[in-house]
Amino acid sequence: MVNIAVLGYGTVGSGVVEVINTNHDIVNKRAGEEIRIKYVLDLRDFPGDPVAEILTHDFNDILNDDEVKVVVEVMGGVEPAYTFVKKSLLAGKSVATSNKELVAAHGSELIAIAKEHAANFLFEASAGGGIPIIRPLNSSITADDITEITGILNGTTNYILTKMANEGADYATVLKQAQDLGYAERNPEADVEGGDTCRKIAILTSIAFGKNLDYATIYTEGITKITAEDFKYADAMKSAIKLLGTTKNVDDKLYSFVAPVMLNETNPLAKIDDVFNGIMVHGNAVDDIMFYGRGAGKLPTASAVVSDVVDAVKHMGTNIMTIWEPEELETGDFSDAVNRFFVRVADEAGIEEKINQLFGDVQYVSADGVTGEKAFVTSDMTEGDFQKKKTELGSIINVIRVAF
Ligand code: HSE
After folding, report:
1. Would you say the CB of residue 260 lies under 6 angstroms from ligand 1?
2. Relative to the CA of 279, which of 68, 196, 288, 325 has its CA 20 to 30 Å away?
3. CATH 1.10.150.650 is held by the domain 144-293
4. Where residue 186 falls among pLDDT bands split at 50, 70, 90?
């Protein structure tokens, strides 16, 4: 029997308890051992819930109990999660976490500590919710030079964008629905301003390229400036608007960014709706691989966490080799990254002439019922060049990157 402890009895923590209880036979068989939840740590009390019998408010009960071999950290936030996880690993306990803030900020260090103590620091649920993506990057796509990772990595914003696009729903109402469904972060700013996607693409990039990508250096835009008019243009362009996190290797330089992108309907990521996430990985031998599944929510996220618990139990006393060196990845200057841009600008006298003069050959777009403005798509240009010309153009209403 292997005893585990669960830190945090919120949406994901209660999901972990539920998955282990509901699927105990199958989980135990796959782990090769019976998994027993010995403690659940939370600041709150849960009268009437069976978890009350194993509830503790003191992390030291878990740390000092040598019978606890695996710690599940599903509290979220960097502290106190970081302190608890580090102490657990230093004590030789393996850790499974869904905490992207923690993994993005300290992944490399915690992997190294786990290795020194013949334990494991596992974080499948930290990117893509229930989608297996960390394990495939670490264990399956190991023959390839990976040249691109692009994904819809946030369930909340994909849910919001889908409802706004398909139902003309109002932003605040749909955000509230996403919160009620347990998709959104406690402070949903991390979802809608792109910070959550930013941490997830940093984690995936660090694992794929073996060195640290500091999430704070990634250019990040959220979805809060997207309006109903943008969706009308997207319709006219046979496109969907999706919040993407991307890392591309261009001429041996890595460029990462997070931003809403107009994706042509022929792009498989354009069809990924609601809370679902999709991640496209391109390798020089395997070509494109797509991963698809629920990116947020209690049980899908818990499924990924419990799969890590099973892996930790299967590898008790052995470290699963994971390369994420502390050294920073060398990245290109974002102003040199090449993109195409969809631009909406106020329709002032001489505007077309000005657009053509600054941007050369552009494609004009019109949308049903949108007046008083001009909209166009640029050719490929660097971010730096675009920013300069955008400032010269003035009267910008909105800008969204475009991909095919
Ligand atoms: N708030 C996150 C999302 C939860 O919506 O994707 C899963 O990481």
Report:
1. no
2. 325
3. no
4. confident
Alpha carbon distance 40, 48 (integer Å): 15
- The CATH superfamily label for domain 2-130+298-327 reads NAD(P)-binding Rossmann-like Domain (3.40.50.720)
For 221-306, strand residue ranges (E) read: 239-250, 253-264, 276-283, 287-294
For residue 296, which atom of ligand 1 is closest to its CA? 7
| Per-residue pLDDT reduced to its tens digit, 187-241 | 999 999 999 999 999 999 999 999 999 999 999 999 999 999 999 999 999 999 9
Distance 199 CA to ligand 1 centre (A): 11
Based on its alpha-carbon atoms, the radius of gyration of the chain, rounded to whole angstroms, reads 23
List b or e across 375-392, with b for residues whose CB sees 16 or more CB atoms inside 10 angstroms: bbbbeebebeebeebbee
- Measured in Å, residue 158 CA sits from the centre of ligand 1 at 10
Collapse the DSSP code of 265 into the 3-class scheme (helix H, G, I; strand E, B; otherwise coil) and give the result: coil
Confidence of residue 169 (pLDDT cuts 50, 70, 90): confident
